[in-house]
Write a structure and sequence with these properties.
By secondary structure, this protein is an alpha/beta fold. 47% of the residues lie in helices and 10% in strands. The strands form eight sheets. Strands 15-16-14-17-18-13-19 form a seven-stranded parallel beta sheet.
Length: 1497
Amino acid sequence: MATVEKENPAKKAAAPSVSQINAEYVTQLANKYWAPHAKNKLPFDPKVMEDIYEKEILSSKFAIRKIMLLEFSQYLENYLWVNYTPEVSSNAFLMSISCIVNEKFRENVPAWEVFKKAPSHFPFFFKCVMEAVLAGDEADLTLKEQTVLLVFLDHCFNSLEVDLIREEVQQLISLPMWMCLLPSRLQQELKKVPKLQKFWNLIKKKFDKMDAEASEQARKERTFLSSLIKKFLGVLASIPPSGPACMDRVHYCERFIELMIDLEALLPTRRWFNTVLDNSHLLVSCHLSSLIHREKEGHLFCQLLDMLKFYTGFEINDQTGNALTEKEMTTLHYDRITSLQRAAFAHFPELQDFALSSVAAVDTRESLTKHFGHLSPNSLHRVASYLCLLPELPEGEETTYEKEVLLELLVSRHERRISQIEQLNLMPLYPTEKIIWDENIVPTEYYSGEGCLALPKLNLQFLTLHDYLLRNFNLFRLESTYEIRQDIEDVVWRMKPWQSEYGGVVFGGWARMAQTITSFSIVEVAKPKIGESWPARVRADVTINLNVQDHIKNEWEGLRKHDVCFLITVRPNLPYGTRFDRRQPFMEQTGLVYVRGCEVQGMLDDKGRVIEEGPDPKPKLRGDARTFRVWLDPNQYQQDMTSNIQNGTEDPYETFNIIMRRKPKENNFKAVLETIRHLMNTECVVPDWLHDIILGYGDPGSAHYSKMPNQISTLDFNDTFLSLDHLRSCFPGYIIKVTEENPELQVFPFRITFPVVNNADKGKKRTADGEMEVKEDKTLIVEPYVTPNRGPYPYNQPKRNTIQFTPTQIEAIRAGMQPGLTMVVGPPGTGKTDVAVQIISNLYHNFPEQRTLIVTHSNQALNQLFEKIMALDIDERHLLRLGHGEEELETEKDFSRYGRVNYVLARRLELLREVGRLQESLDVPGDVSYTCETAGHFYLYQVISRWEEYLSKVRPKQGKNVEVQAIAAHFPFHKYFANAPQPVFKGRSYEEDMDIAEGCYRHIKKIFTQLEEFRAFELLRSGLDRSKYLLVKEAKIIAMTCTHAALKRHDLVELGFKYDNILMEEAAQILEIETFIPLLLQNPADGYSRLKRWIMIGDHHQLPPVIKNMAFQKYSNMEQSLFTRFVRLGVPTIDLDAQGRARSSLCNLYNWRYKHLGNLPHVQQLPEFQVPNPGLTFDFQLINVEDFNGVGESEPNPYFYQNLAEAEYSVALYMYMRLLGYPADRISILTTYNGQKHLIRDVINQRCAGNPFFSQPNKVTTVDRFQGQQNDYIILSLVRTKAVGHLRDVRRLVVAMSRARLGLYIFARVSLFQNCFELTPAFNQLTARPLQLHIRPREYYSQEQPRDASGQPDQIIKNMPEMANLVYNIYMHMIQTSEKYRQKQQQSMALPPQASKTEKEPSTQEQQEETPMEQDIPMKQDTPMKQDTPMKQETPMEQETPMKQETPEGEMISEPQSEETGEMKENEETADHAKMPEHPGRDSDSDGEENGEEEDL
């Protein structure tokens, strides 16, 4: 928090307001030369560009604010690149383009689009950048400018998926770059891989044939990186060991190392470069440089250098890209040492001792230094040149290298390294206070994106699975540490720890999520396992006193097994009652000393035993003291104890005084980290067909079903198609052959046989492109078949799909049924869930022996899926839902493990009763329906024999027909089926009756097959065993969230959980690692994964996973989901292309972001999409909101943005809609910032709460939170007036625009948003309509008819106070009319019957007479009677319209009246137009999001 505050002033400068933008020199130029909306632009003038670069960029030292303005004004798109040609190219031109591209990367907006549109001059531009970055000072470029170019190059190397960039970069990193190696080293490397020598000879031949100019260019490209390294070493050497350091040089060095790390961490760039880097001895030079010894300036450089060292020695074969095992790494190490020993023995007699020692004795840093340290520099140089590390030392010459360089060169090359996995296993998984508050590891402040960080990046490709998991492990760990820090700080601030008079601790506050510890003791330290040095487990008991409100007490008692808590020690120095200042450093004020994590095993009962989880009710405990048994981290415990014994430090476990719990949703980090670590320790087997795609190599389409060797030709589509015509329309371009001639029998279900192209035909001729000539067969063979009769009862009829799928949806369903990887991109409202459910159903019917795992991001999505699955023909006993979200399922059925066990037990009793009924009907004596076993015997001996006997009677013998009546006459189960709809047999034809008889038998047979399956439940007695059996054997469709999969992987694998297919919903919202873990929830069978299908459904154009820390989100690209990465890699996707959610006009606001997103027919046809929104002229409108009282956006806390004018305007529109009769649950108010959400909630509470006219809208929340939901009418507030902020992320815009079905009303500062390049496609449509709210107050919600064009004119609302006034007047008018109406009702009830009749007539006249009087009310309003009618039709608004109320409910009416006086007072202020009602929520919001956090709990 503290650092955020410090950063704030600097950050303020980085967000220019609209007025500043307009006043800026840049903007004036933009309006003349390149602004998109400028008329009569002036022609390009290089002088202007030079001028801007000198004055705006260089002189401001590359100030972010200036570059932001330039980038935002579309300087690159409309001025720089369109006018770039080799003739006008200059340093200023290069620098300007590079600056803007870097700025685009910093802001996370697409950077290469403009170059792709006009690529012709890019190669020349890139060569100029290369020359400039090498020439540096000679080209009159300062180090700061060269650093900008380095960053630009780094972005190029990280954008290899862009063809334009790859073509340029490829030249710099391919095999020919080995011409920079020492000749001896080159020969040594070429010998290692025989093929290389051949390639090298070809390269040399080509090079020799080139003319002078081409060979010079080729030489420049090939030596570029090694020249750059030499240049860097010069800069590094110029930094002095002490005294003032030039920070520009330090930043240059940091950025350079970042570039090296990025080159080493990608296989395509690393393959040949790693050898060149090794040959340049860069690491040795850095290691001995003076920068590394400078405590302050060199800190980040050291961390980056460690990362580079890690990647240069990574366990991978550079040429083949195969991961090296532990054994291979050891062999390599031994080979190196033994070859050195041989060399020493043969050529260097002074190293005799070294040559004859064992490897283990000489491979540590100490012993190597001891053996080589006494040699002279010349001898060391000779050893190094013998190893091809340095050029030969000519006879009689002295070496030019320092002795320490030579020594370090040999030692660092031959010392033993700890393997990566060992280091990982020794690491404690919980963060401690040392890591949590270390700024370098977990950056706090708003990360501006300027500097570089020592963090791993998630780009497109990874070296090996180990590298993939490790990068994700580190980032996941740090991201969760950041969240833990926020929670600890919040809790400890709330607890207010002060020093008591006696030196102890006294807590002045309380926190819901923390309790003070009354006693803590370690109860067990188990012996280490064999081969390990840390205890097997450490357990402790923590006692707390729960003297709190019941609901909080229940939360503490509800802590589950494996929940993570934190034990905290505070020793405050501040005396009782001191105020805490959240802006000052946290640890010093609160006196926080230790933080240790622990994992709950359970609560102890009164006998001191752990209360186990399960279906049994928990025992009630007396008193308030509760003791929890917890597991501590053994690695951490061992480290603490070792340091306690060796260094005499304090034992932290004696000191804890606070225990903190966290929200279960955010508290899964330990289990996920444990899972990743466990995966890295096992041979994790990813299916072969996925391995390369996950790492980002090879053909991205190789896992598509069309390229899979095990493609299935005939598939049963069951109820996917509603008719043959539907089927024909879904396969345009195919010839459809139906096997059944009779049109009456051409009904679903259908089996379809597809033409399968066999990839094995290698012998065919290839065309010029090297492609195989394959004539694709376009014929489908469709076979309608009849589903076997399931029995005579109505419930035997299968449930059917009723959705008419579109051709693209059918393609997605077909792909999902085939083996391989299927990626479905589902824009908003395109039926993603329906497609998912149909795929699941089809897999279930086609492959009854296979099991499908469903994974989603949120419980809500899982529940929606489940509700739809239950509407299809899937046997309930095969469904299972894991995790803790099943409570919210909107059905009476419980799909959790214990719910399913209870269902099976209840079903068993039901079926046994049926068996009893069958036994009675057959007059069989004895008790056969006692258990599943006895029922099985009964079936075998009594039922089957009767059925076989019956068949022998009714099956036609040769040449003899059987009478239709015989079927019914001989049927043995008449009595049993007496309760089915009669008559069971129709007696119309032999075939029909025989089908019915077989159906009846199937019904009986199914009873016994189910009982056979349930028999295990009789043998397994405990609920736990039964639920495990259900999971491993019985369930066919298992659903869980990705978080649950990560948490429970260990348990699932141990149980022997198996599955064949995975379907992931919301895949673009799941973190990369949480998407990967579900692939590995089972042990491989015989070294192979049994996974056959992986279906991912998501939308990468909507918001990515939530990453709270900006540094990880932006710098490390942690927000990139696996789905998005696959799309970027070019994995084939199926894009659903018809939406059925919103009006087509609303769909146009976001459909430009998708390939071909159209509308389903019903969006044009249904009346609700036809009629306009009553009372509002437009179905969507962007309403401009200017400053109110001189204030636009405000920021009471850092990044807690609010805008009072927009909040009041949004709520006024909501109130207006409610007064016209719109139901409250059909309106949601969204905003893009948390601060505004709280402000709007406050305004709603002030204006609407408790008033039945208005009540609360369906939701008031942020756009991000509302993803995946929808509503009819959305009111959206964009808040910002100074800078666009995070709405520049187009994905957020798409989500915001696509939530509304019928009406979208946006409040924003138009001048700011319409200039934003990324948002133009949407804002061009929005700004084409008037920017002031147009309304028609005489219309009412229940109007269904289209609007009359010649009707009343629109009323235009100029600003927010006018709208507030209008709403107030309508409201007062309604109250008065309803009051009059009520009085008349009372009078008419009080009069005698005759009189009431006569009274009625004048009443209508009175109504007419009243009209003129009402016209005087400032707002023209319809007569109340007219308005009364629509209100009465209103169903969702019961009791909200006073019109309908009976007289006795007087208090109902009096409530609005009491509100009236308040509204009156407010109106006096509103009418004034100077001052709005005092904003109610300012005080409560001023201390940050605390109140909101409680609200969101």
